[in-house]
Design brief:
The protein is built from eleven helices and eleven strands. It has 282 residues and is α/β, with parallel strands linked by helices. Strand 4, helix 6 and strand 5 form a beta-alpha-beta unit. Helix 5 packs parallel to helix 6.
Length: 282
């Protein structure tokens, strides 16, 4: 790689985890996978709204997509690609990697990659684990991804969190077992590591703070500043799952009504590109 190649890469990498509101891990205790087909799907309309929003801001993104969603809306998969975005895998049905054996995980990622490629006609190189669940408990994960044909993963969120993360893990991309692991964005402030990556953290924080963290990440991280969100986060009209635990409901529904306007401002503030391009893979 020469200096010109590095300069031309997007510094800010936008990603979308394509899953429906009833498929989130926080609701998995009250919504079984067997019941998913009984819910009215909103992910297609919400993802298409994301595509329109990105067009408005001349932004490109990586869409980490569930195989379950792809099977039920193949036109959405083809539209993501046709509109110039990267299609990547989020696994088949949002099962965490650390809840699978190595053989189960290999079967899942192999099946999902083939499904997405058959529907889209493009090579699927990227992968993101449900719940950022690749870590110390899954030392075989990257070898399995390499065997399945994936080139990179963005499956770590190196912070302290009650459901995922490792505050001592690498913050910048690294290679392991022939696969690049590209963590989502974090920053270090006064000895504390904070997320700059989006998700619930982004919805909870004031816009000025979120953008200050993104700007700091762009100056301190050695790799791309990877940001993520979900299509359901711009859907304040989604049905409420009131039987879910209070903590899960507070996290999930926090500031949904203001998310799209806030996201629009962040899309305007930085030049956003795809993860594969940001890693120099395209």
């Amino acid at each position: 790689m020469n200096a010109a190649d590095a300069i031309s890469r997007p510094r800010f990498a936008l990603s979308v985890d394509v899953e429906d509101y009833f498929q989130v891990w926080a609701f998995s205790g009250v919504v079984s996978r067997a019941s998913w087909d009984g819910f009215a799907s909103r992910v297609g309309d919400n993802t298409r709204r994301c595509l329109d929003l990105f067009d408005e801001h001349n932004a490109k993104a990586t869409f980490f997509t569930l195989g379950w969603v792809a099977e039920r809306d193949p036109d959405l998969i083809r539209e993501i690609v046709a509109r110039g975005h990267e299609l990547a895998s989020h696994g088949y049905d949002h099962t965490k990697v650390n809840e699978q054996t190595c053989d189960q995980f290999l079967a899942d990622v192999t099946k999902t990659k083939a499904l997405l490629e058959d529907l889209s006609g493009v090579d699927v190189r990227g992968y993101r684990a449900a719940g950022f669940s690749i870590g110390k408990a899954t030392p075989w994960a990257h070898e399995a991804l390499a065997e399945a044909g994936h080139v990179y993963s963005s499956s770590t969120h190196p912070i302290a969190h009650d459901h995922y993360g490792d505050a001592a893990a690498a913050q910048s991309p690294y290679e392991t077992a022939g696969v690049i692991e590209a963590p989502v964005a974090t920053v270090n402030i006064f000895g504390k590591r904070l997320s700059a990556a989006g998700g619930g953290w982004y919805r909870a924080a004031p816009l000025a703070l979120s953008q200050a963290l993104l700007s700091k990440a762009s100056k301190t991280l050695e790799g791309p500043v990877i940001f993520y969100f979900h299509p359901w986060e711009i859907d304040p009209g989604q049905p409420r799952l009131n039987r879910a635990p209070l903590k899960s409901r507070l996290r999930h529904y926090l500031n949904l009504d203001s998310m799209e306007a806030k996201l629009s401002k962040t899309l305007s503030a930085y030049p956003w590109g795809r993860i594969d391009e940001a890693l120099g893979l395209s």
